[in-house]
Amino acid sequence: MPRIITAILFIVSVSTALANPTSSVLIKNIKIIDSQTIQTDVDLLIVDGAIRKIARDIDDKDVHLVIDGTDSTLIPGFVATHNHLHMPGATFLGKAGAKLYLAGGVTTMQTTGAAEPLKELQLKQVIEQGRVAGPDIVTTGPYFTGPDGNDAMVRITDEQAIDREIEEWVDRGVSWFKVYRHTTEPQLKAIINSVHKRGAKVTGHLCSITMQQAAELGIDAIEHGFIHAYDFAEGKTAGECDGSNNYRSSLDIQGKQLEQLHKTLIANKVAISSTPSIFEAQTPNTPINPAFKTYLAPHLLERAENYLQRREKAGDSWYFKREWLDRTLQHDRLFLQRGGLLTIGPDPGLHSIPGFADQRNFKLLVEGGFTIQEAIQVMSANGATSLGFADRGYVKEGYRADLILVDGDLENAPHTINNIKLVIKNGVTYQPHELRKGLEGQLGKTVERE
After folding, report:
1. In what order do the strands lie in the sheet with 176-179?
2. CATH T-level topology, domain 3-75+394-436
3. Per its record, what are the GO molecular function terms (predicted)?
């Protein structure tokens, strides 16, 4: 006899779901949207963690769990590519961060630079073992930077030493490495060669080296996109992290210079990982989700509130301009339409926190002119492509059951992305409010509460 529930009331707790994944789930009467299709009034059957069948009026005989999806939308789980497990003021977000990401619809995530890489690997392991709820984690090694870079990062002084360090981290299970602002062209070349010969990949937050140079050297992805396109910085010194950022306001988004850069990135199969939610967090007079007041540890809450006070007091004189956010989204959609691999992540910080910031990214894409299906492509399918997953990112028969059930018609009301009723990861169902339970004031605490 199947259990029948509404999509509003879910009776399996998170702990039960972790210990005993339901082997078959049937969701009835739903609208399904992914980047390729929109289907209405259909049912979806999950068996052993995979999407077995999508059709009308699927028989619920022998199904363990039946969910009424009337007036709901089912989309792929988010595959996000800039989801740190740290943020300014906290070197490791741990289980609290993982649960908040999953509650926000993120079923797979790339950490894209680690402050505590060993802890990230340990968290990845306990999630895979089913001991903690969280997304699948694609781990990143420690940041690499040039001799003038941040003290907390690995400063590149000797190519052989870097090669040994990369080998050690790959042996531990790291699959991506991130270079930071002061990395030079010769250093990046050595890192790419070392990483690629071990089957791993490289991404970068660039400044001293341009996107054009990085693409031609073979980098796999570039973080933040247009905002850090120092290819167009006036007064830039070759190999130095300098130059004016006036291009953020003045560069012709439709012009030949940017078109040529896009051609180079696309020809070299370089993904751009956009991070609009953290840009918005730095922009005066923009929406603020009050969730940060609930989940941030006290020292991070104080930090965020002080920042917001300074930001709003400064107004138009603030360092981050509204037009930079708008132009970033214009750039991103143009890159996507030209055939570029655009991915996305929140880069959490300030009052922009895991999970909630991922949902905000979705809405920012739509507000920036992306169609619903384009936004889902960026949030899900493109991330899967960039990270090398062929089994997720779409709602298709045979694909892994990584899904988000939204209360409402997402196609016509994009804001309903905030109303996630269920997150399904590998066929296991989670309620967001259960995942968030007990996390109040825990995000960024030095000692995690079990």
Report:
1. 154-155, 144-145, 176-179, 201-204, 221-223, 271-274, 342-344
2. Urease, subunit C; domain 1 (2.30.40)
3. hydrolase activity, acting on carbon-nitrogen (but not peptide) bonds
